Amino acid sequence: MKFYKCNDNDPLYAFYQKDGLYYPVFVEKYGTKPVDINNVYEISDEETVLALTKYMQPYEIGKPKIYMAGPLFNEGDTYTNKLNSDALRAKGFTTFLPQEVIITEKSSELLIAACVYMDLKAIYTCDYLIANCNGLEMDSGTAAEIGIAYALNKKIYLYKSDVRRYLNNFILGLADNMVYQTIQEIIEQLEKQNIRL
Question: What's the burial of 156, exposed, middle or buried (CB within 10 Å: 0-12/13-18/19+)?
Fold first, then answer.
């Protein structure tokens, strides 16, 4: 899919084309109706195109959808997140792993917005949220993702392999007071619910 911008003052106003018409990408901000625009140009930055593409379709079709919440700010975090995601994908689930799109200090406003909207859409449309809660204190973004998922009545699984077992009681309560030490324990719970493909 190709994405476009026009010569306007809104850095987040991106479009895609369907049936000869232009539609805003971020429906949460701009709605779903086609728009009349002139002087469009194609967005060519690969990272931005990747983020917009993931926003449009965060999950594979026809598989149980899992949002992978967790910190992603060091090698240990990203390694664990990827291992867990790969284990779930190998079992037939489709996962959304936010770290697959990277924001840096050089990222454009459009790319940053794409990541925000992409993460929100992925939480809205997931079946389950698995939260990596490793560390002495839970990552603040992970806590926000858990809160959003709970408000949307999503089933939440907390993962913490860290031997420091403390977790905030409020967060625990949002996940039925259950913490799993391995991704395999979570996979077993998912399979008990008869959702294996």
Answer: buried
